[in-house]
Amino acid sequence: MNSRNRLKMFFLIPFVMGSLFIGGAETFPCKETTKTRENIDQGILTLFSQNYSKSNSVPKNVFIAKLQGNKIYDKLYSAIYGMLKSEISFKTSKVLQYKVRRGSCSCPYSLFPVADTVLESGINGYTADLVKSSETYRFCEVASIPLIHYMEQPRQIGSLYICRLIPMVKCTYQISIDLEMDGPQSFVELNTPGSKLILQKVNNNNIILESYFKDSSENIRCESISIGNAAEKSDFEIIFDGYNKTNTILVKDGNCIVTPFYNTDRQRLPYVDVSNGYIKFTSFVLGKGTHLDLDIYSISQTSERKLITAIGSNRMLAFGIDGPHVRNTTEQGIRYLNSKKNRGTIWFDIELLEQYNEEDIEYLRGLVINNSWDVGVHYSKELNSFPLEQAYRIMDEGHLYVYEKIGRKPTSWCSMRNRDNIMHALYAYETLGMIWRNGDSGIHTEKYIGSLEDDTWEWWETASKAGMVHPVFTHELDKDPAIKYSISRSKFHNWVENYESNNMSIVSFHEYSQISRNTYDATFDNLQYTENSVVFNVHTNGGIALINVNINAGRDSQVYDNTSGEFLDYDIKQDNSITFWVENNHNYIVYLNSDEQ
Questions:
Q1: Considering 311, 331, 355, which residue would you say is the last residue of a domain?
Q2: Taking the chain, what is the end-to-end CA distance rounded to the nearest angstrom?
Q3: Is the pTM above the cut of 0.70?
Q4: Is residue 113 located within the same domain as residue 159?
Q5: Residue 527 resides in a domain
Q6: What's 166's DSSP letter?
Q7: Is 493's pLDDT higher than 80?
């Protein structure tokens, strides 16, 4: 419930005037003595929860999305191995069921290994993708998965996404599922933030979870744990730790495994990492298998709770544009975003910036100063093509050039064709104070859809309707149809409207990053409270933070920013705690029982 009530003035005046800030302490017009306390632990805070036994239909935040699977080798795959179909539905027992079915095959099962070899090495146009996906090749080799099936089946059936989870530096996912399949080689891949997990039924009817990761030598390894018996549902937890860059798998018998994030780039980020706003299941039907049913009973996300807890927001999407390209290809789209009180990052391409006239430069400065667009650097060269020392000089010069031209320091960066790596990311953060747009925690979380363009619209159209939070960029916004690597005007407007219908804002990468990392960075001190009020100071990383205060709020509770002198809106949660936005170095009063003052 959103509260917009304002305290009546004859209650407000004695309360605020009676609050005195003297040497870091405050006194209140209450009979009870005010006590200074620590921000103590108070158990567990539920951030997200869906119990599908209580649902009557597929929730809006759940969807199956497909990559475009209409190329020659996609059709050839279906012709040889049989058509694959997937659906999500509710069983009579009220579980969310993700079902994959394979039709009859034109190729005998005994010849599958031969077909695998031929397709993996001989399809024109596909071999280039295999070269680019050498990491995928290595993963399939370690996991004993036929590469052709691992590459093609997600294009045929689509993965199941569950969205609207909360970005956090540290959190826990509780998952309750069961699996039913008729092929011993079939499996489900589960991707939670930073993880690559395989769920498979083994001979003794146990469900085994394998957590894969790369070691410091880039070798792919895995740890395994039994999560339950296939005859009953399996309950397990995944603890995401964006500070230590690990995932911990904990099962109900108390056993656990701890593994690093799958990708070494993500392991080596020089700043705390943030959980994605979704989890993903992908079913693979292999060998003689004809079906795989994944039943999901419940999904929840929790974090450790304090009296005051900083949490992320699932109502924000990080967005930006490269270039920007000439005004008649972007200006209408930017104006449309501004009209919706949205904004983004402009990754200024240095070579393009050199070509702009002063009128265009002033227009771009105005977007930054007046419309809260953020400044990034798009290096005009592929940084991977240069020795590190030379690449660092290019980064220094580009950062300074954009700063001098636009008047604001860039906060994030990328390079031509996204050809950059973790070494550049380390230098950019430690020397220039910029975060990396790319990498496994950036636009490459989903490898094929980090760019919003006509070629990825089939995915984004469904995802945006579900409120999918995934960092994204594009180039041009105004042409219809769009050029390569850009989004058509009509599709872009549709995309924005889909997020607006979900009550979500489109923001810059920097704003999204600061808010999400404040779930670790934000601190609270000078905390004082009585049975009627709570007062505290807030310190953040410079950005705003969303906080939850664990109090028993009533209909007349009020939140007052003692620094700005303003009352604040807040949400009351199911447990009667409240959430609201706070600013760095501000002092806040939460008044619980205004009707009794």
A1: 311
A2: 23
A3: yes
A4: yes
A5: yes
A6: P
A7: yes
